[in-house]
Amino acid sequence: MLITKRGTWWEVLHSWWLLLTFAPFALTAFLAFFYIGYRAKNKKWLKYGLIYFIILAIAFVLPSTPGVYIVLPLWVIAIIHGLKVRAAYLIQLDVFKQNVEARAYEAVRHEAEEKFGGKPAHRIDLTKQR
Predict the structure, then answer these.
(1) Distance CA 50, CA 65 (A)
(2) Do 90 and 4 meet the contact criterion of CB atoms below 8 Å apart?
(3) How much is the pTM?
(4) Where is average pLDDT lowest: 41-50, 78-87, 101-110?
(5) Which of 2, 10, 20, 123 is the most buried (most CB within 10 A)?
(6) Residues 51, 56, 61, CA angle at the centre, nearest 5°?
């Protein structure tokens, strides 16, 4: 099922971070949420990454038995959470990249108009969905 208009391969390539949630005992789950929070400029996901890191750190400080009772559910929760936010991440990343590409296109067009003079060409708004 496609989430964006960029295609299946684009979505698969931009979902590699999910592998970090599957690492044993959620050792890298916090990195996955730091990554998607940074890429999509979403502070909520950065906070989740911090929460996962703090819980993981506490679990490793505790003796082995209580630590295991914390890490195993954390691992499952991180995987489920990652799968749930994947669609929202891909949509936010798509919109962010579309806006960046549109601004870059407009900057190049404006530069060309200044360089070659003449009338400004008809501007196309690339941020609108068709």
Answers:
(1) 23
(2) yes
(3) 0.78
(4) 101-110
(5) 20
(6) 130
Take residue 86 and report the two structure tokens written for it.
């994947």
Three-state DSSP string of the chain = CCCCCCCHHHHHHCCCCHHHHCCHHHCCHHHHHHHHHHHCCCHHHHHHHHHHHHHHHHHHHCCHHHHHHHHHHHHHHHHHHHHHHHHHHHHHHHHHHHHHHHHHHHHHHHHHHHHHCCCCCCCCCCCCCC
pLDDT tens per residue across span 21-62? 999 999 999 999 999 999 999 999 999 999 999 999 999 999
Q: From 69, 24, 75, select the one nearest 52 (Cα to Cα).
A: 75
Tokens of 44: 């909520």
Task: Return the residue matching tokens 């914390």.
Answer: 70
